[in-house]
Amino acid sequence: MKCVVIGAGFSGLAAATRLLLEGHQVTILEQKTQVGGKAEGWHGIPTGPTVVTMPEVIRELFNRLHAVPPTFKEINPTTTYQYADGRIFRPYRNMERTFQELNYSEADTYQDLLFLARDMYNGAKDTFLFGPPPGMPALMQYGLKHGLKARPNMTLEQLLEPAGKYLKTFFLRFATYMGANPYRAPAVLHNIAWVELGLGVWHVQGGFAAVAQSLEKTLKLRGVEFVYGTKVQGMEVQGGRVTRIQTDKGDFQADWVVSSMDRNFTLRALGKELPQEELTISGFTLQAHLFEDRPLGHQVIFPQNYRQEWADIEADRMPRDPTIYVHTEGKKAFIMVNSPPLETPNKEGYAEQILKLLEQRYPLSIREYNVMAPQDYAKAAYSGALYGRAPHGLKGALRYGWSIEGVKNLRQVGGTVHPGGGVPLSILSGYSGALPEYRSLVKKSRDEG
User: Fold this and answer.
1) What residue ranges carry the coiled-coil annotation (predicted)?
2) Would you list the DSSP string of 187-221?
């Protein structure tokens, strides 16, 4: 079967792997000149994810190709958190070591909330991560067996209200990994905290870009064709099947199509109406070269008023005092703040505002930098919304499935559909969702913790 995969981000590369292993002829169309999506970056600095979690997913994708997987090194502390009053909190995967960062009352609260996140994750993972998009029977089974653990009638803020101001802010932030406003997120998103705090944060040499390039090389050696600098402009559908993919470099025909584009871009290419729905947050980032070496690690600098940051974003304003995330490695730094999925009118001016805040709170000796605003991310993510539909409310927390209504020979994979955004989940989506018959990339594991 002749297959075309649209997009060479991690979900597209994983989809190509599955199709190749099933014996199909595969061509990947990529609008950029390199693979890896946002991992490609600027002068060796990523414009996208830098936190490596769930390394077993990446490792297994390489194993399926009989290729040497990358080497992962665990990072401890997972991240350094800095509060506006100067307090520093460094959580470790080892809980006893983390307790040394907390007072007695906080240590008890941290343990209780971490174990709750673990229980939520263990209850949800087989249905919402390591399985096909759940239908009503699977949702009912989950609800009967684990539903109460998910606190279905609570918001995340309500769940965390007793935690005290430091730990509440700390745990709220994990909902942003799904693109949510943490003050509107459902309580079930608390499970995300376990992925980082319980399963660990890792580093891979060269970052995600090196991982993507290694996959690209392996797939090429196995016969996959890559066509770069090719933007999909439309898809012709006849008899409920895609018969032609129209690009700025000519038309492509295929028996089977896998789109790893943003779901809304796929719908637009098919000439379908886009759903009217709330979108996730976007990001405003700087990729910086430094004068001095900085240690490898992740830093989160909280603002004076975390709630006000999200009030600004809800009002479609760039936050005046945002949470600032910084990843450093040698003379490179990736800096990110949350933003609404809208065009930033004066992105250079806002970048200067962020740099002034950094100068006060976490000084970096910046030699040069590049700016990426929501309108720049909008080239690959509809309206710049990095995770598609906002996961607010129980319905919002459910991701779209892998099919597009009325199109029989097309599958939709990637971060805007099941199981969600981020590199590991995008890989799971691409591999398992590339064909109608479900194939698991990783074995369903026993409960963690």
Assistant:
1) none
2) GGGGGHHHHHHTT-EEEETTHHHHHHHHHHHHHHH
The pLDDT confidence band at residue 271, using thresholds 50, 70 and 90, is: very high
Q: Are residues 308 and 235 in the same domain?
A: no
CATH code of the domain containing 423: 3.50.50.60
Q: What is the pTM of this model?
A: 0.96
What six digits make up the tokens of 346? Answer: 């004066």
3-state secondary structure of 64: helix
What's the maximum distance between 2 C-alpha atoms anywhere in the chain? 66
Let me know whether 179 and 143 are in one domain: yes
What phi and psi values does residue 368 have, to the nearest 5 degrees?
Answer: -155, 155
Do residues 317 and 95 make contact, with C-beta atoms less than 8 angstroms apart? Answer: no
* pLDDT range class, residue 149, cuts 50, 70, 90: confident
Omega of the bond leading into 419 within 30 degrees of 0 (cis): yes
Q: Which residues contact 406 (CB under 8 A, 6 or more apart)?
A: 237, 240
How high does pLDDT run on average in the chain?
Answer: 95
Amino acid at 432: S
Q: Compute φ and ψ for 3, nearest 5 degrees.
A: -120, 140
Name the 3-class secondary structure at 23: coil
